Amino acid sequence: MSKNLSDGVGHLERSINWKQGLAIALGVPLLILPSLGYLPMYMAAAAILVWGLSVIQGFIQNAAYAEMATTFPKASGLPGFAQHVFRTENFKGKYDKGKLIGGFSAWSYWFAWNPVLAIFSILVGGYLHGLFPVLAETFTEFQLSLISGLLIFTGLFVVNWFGLKDGAILGYILAAVSLIPLVILTVAPFATGHVDLANITGNWWPADWAWDMHHILILFGIFAIAQWSACGWETAAIYAPEYKNPSKDVPKALFACGIICFLSYVLVQTAVIGVLGVEGVMAEPVSPLIPVARAVFGEAGSIITIIMLIAAMILIIQTAYLGSSRALHSMTTEGNLPKVFGKTNRHGTPFIALLVTAAFNMVLISMGSLAAILAAAAIGYTCANGISLFAYVRAKKHPAFATLERPFKAPRGWKNVAMIFGLFNLPLCLIGVVYLNSQEIGWTSTWLGFLVLSLYIPIWFYSQRESRPSNNEAATPDSLDNDSDNDVEDLEKVPASR
């Protein structure tokens, strides 16, 4: 049963192993679906290379995140340890700038994952509209998206009310329903000879590509969009406070999911371009798997594909729903959001965070623009990754952190690698995605992204005023207490921010 703290913020329960964490994160390979037809529009068949490089980028970044997740096993992944590293211990003033930076990183991460719910609800509505004529006669695609979002969010809220273990069970079920047919649909075109390598080698690079500033900025933007999908398996580390054995479960879940993602992203894009060609993919930018299914399995196959994709979308919505709610809970335990967001039920579920996440996404669905929502989410993701990697560098360089136990360690010199990729995210990918958005869909997504990110500032100041009476209490939050006395002593040695 969950223990409620004196300030009203509840503990998360240690109830899952690495296999259950992997099951929840298995929705991540499906994040390729919104961009499966998008990347070839800019990169032709080289989109295959971009996906492969982006997953490798995920391995590099996630090695750092796995170390941090096991160093601070009570911190919820990226949102948790970035807040912990940047905060100022024993701060005596009103507003801690280091705490604000860490909190902003967590808010950016929440905004990166949060719109997944809206994006895939819109896709579900679109597929239902095309699959069932009776629905198309009664509802518009927009109405079906709203209805789909409401029904899916409600159903997942009920399932997750009973704790993360049940969410993992749902992940197992949906993974079997969606990932296995997706693998079949990916492998079958190779087995049946429908993949024509000439479609790839004959159009490997865009004919009008030039290595000028315009195209370089577009390339950075493409990598920002790709990493939002292909690097998202760091979500397996989000559940560090809920693993039974974080030091072993976190690395296993992360790297197992990474291998699956690499094979999935490269092979799915290869199969789609190999069957349809770049021109064929561009003709079906939203749902290129459907004509692939028709080519390989006939008309019946296309219907099965749509049903499979809907199940897959519910799986990724489940993954994002859990990750977003845990990010809100983590910010609350660190004092970076009002305490109400940290309330848990008797099963240890942060139910207020779940409700807020669902309500926010219903608002996003009402916007009706999938491309704008995805691009705005990519802005949040580049900010979150950049700040989190800088947090890792700080934790490795500052001598006071040397006393902390690190059950999992990234390779020697990884802080330098992390700094390079931190700078790749901020500012390069951030500038690139803003430029790409301005060229393609105007400034709507950019303004949306920066508006949501900037809303954190007044919310944060409110949370500081709310918690001000407790500023003179012990600096180490209860939420980051370790399970042993030695761990607690270690956390008390965390240095003050400069």
UniProtKB/TrEMBL annotation:
Its main location: membrane. This is Amino acid permease. GO terms for molecular function: transmembrane transporter activity. It is found in: Cell membrane. It comes from the Bacteria. InterPro entries: AA/rel_permease1 (IPR002293), APC_superfamily (IPR050367). It holds the Pfam family AA_permease_2. Residues 468-498 are annotated as: Disordered. The keyword Transmembrane applies. The chain crosses the membrane at residues 21-39, 45-65, 107-130, 142-162, 169-193, 213-233, 253-276, 296-322, 348-365, 371-393, 414-435, 441-462. Keywords: Cell membrane, Membrane, Transmembrane, Transmembrane helix. Residues 480-490 have a biased composition (Acidic residues). It is a multi-pass membrane protein. GO terms for cellular component: plasma membrane.
